[in-house]
Write a structure and sequence with these properties.
Strand content: 5-15%
Number of domains: 1
Shape: globular
Structural class: alpha/beta
CATH class: Alpha Beta
Order of helices and strands: HHHHEHEHEHEHHEHEHEHEH
CATH superfamily: Aldolase class I
Radius of gyration: 19 Å
Distance between the termini: 28 Å
Largest sheet: 8 strands, parallel
CATH architecture: Alpha-Beta Barrel
Number of helices: 13
Oligomer: single chain
CATH topology: TIM Barrel
């Protein structure tokens, strides 16, 4: 990932102070509950306001290509097969076979058992291979099982791990338990990047989303991610806004940049561009890069490709022009 500027002495001191929080349940609780509360009305109004912005012509074409590069092309179904995930990986490399100028996606995300088949196709390419782990989607398994899940996915070729936090422990206020599991999973990842799924639809409040975001970052997460896509409420603009504010404030406090991945429910080019506007307006252009912002999606890619074709050819391609995932 992109190298950050050297931290100031103040940021270095703050980072040192924050690193001590994980040694004590009391310290974690005091810090997390001392974070500023989220103004629910303000967050929702701000997200809605940003959603009204529009971009045209050349800027829209650039936004579509950027969004394609940010897609984590995902299949997480019990009926996934080696053939299906190989085809998905091939599409990730060449989303539009008729147009070689079309960029590749950011990553392919699959279950651990499917990782070896995707790795065969992606080997030597710039597309990342992500795997869900840690008893996805519930997170309800003994820690040793979660860590074995993670190590197996990395050994098979995954260079990104999407873990789920134990929401039951978090909502019960057992912050140390959640923190320790993230730290242990990060260690099990080795050189692979760790995305921490908060499952925001189960966290109930924006204050909890902010606390969970900070907890994941304090424990070493490289990305914070909204959702598994397996609960009714997935990514929403206000929740993503709260998470973006958290990564912005975390970098200001520590000097370390953390990525954000909204996942679930983002299906259209219009939706994706709204999120890109939000990123630019909230955290700035440093995050407008696949290293720092991703979309967890499956159907989104096809809509991006249809809109891209319309801009480049003047003809709107139908949904059957591209393969279904």
């Amino acid at each position: 990932m992109r190298r950050l500027p050297a931290m100031t002495a103040t940021a270095t001191s703050a980072r040192s102070d924050l690193s001590e929080l994980g040694r004590s349940e009391t310290a974690l609780r005091t810090f997390l509950h001392g974070l500023p509360g989220v103004d629910q009305v303000g967050a929702e109004q701000r997200a809605a306001q940003l959603g009204t912005r529009s971009i045209k012509t050349t800027a829209k074409a650039q936004a579509i290509d950027l969004a394609i590069r940010m897609v984590d092309l995902t299949t997480l179904e019990g009926a996934d097969t080696p053939g299906k995930v190989r085809a998905l990986a091939a599409k990730a490399l060449r989303p539009d076979p008729a147009d070689p100028s079309c960029p590749h996606v950011g990553a392919v995300c699959v279950y651990p058992a499917m990782v070896p088949y995707v790795a065969e196709v992606l080997r030597g390419s710039a597309v990342h291979l992500a795997s869900v782990a840690t008893a996805f989607p519930s997170g309800q398994a003994p820690l040793e099982v979660k860590l074995a899940d993670t190590r197996a996915a990395v050994a098979a070729g995954a260079d990104e791990i999407d873990m789920v936090i134990n929401r039951g422990a978090f909502l019960a206020g057992r912050y140390q338990e959640v923190y320790d599991e993230i730290v242990a999973t990060k260690e099990a990842c080795g050189d692979a990047h760790l995305k921490v799924i908060l499952e925001t639809g189960e966290l109930a409040t924006y204050d909890n989303v902010r606390r969970a975001s900070w907890l994941a970052m304090l424990a070493g997460g490289d990305f914070i991610k909204t959702s598994t896509g397996k609960v009714p409420v997935a990514a929403t603009p206000p929740v993503t806004l709260v998470m973006l504010e958290a990564v912005r404030d975390f970098r200001a406090a520590t000097g370390r940049q953390v990525g954000v991945k909204p996942a679930g429910g983002i299906r259209t080019t219009k939706d994706a561009i709204k999120y890109l506007v939000m990123v630019n307006e909230t955290v700035g252009p440093d995050w407008l890069d696949p290293d720092w912002f991703r979309f967890g999606a499956s159907s989104l890619l096809n809509d991006l490709l249809m809109q891209r074709t319309k801009l480049t050819t003047g003809v709107y391609a139908g949904p059957d022009y591209f393969t279904l995932d």
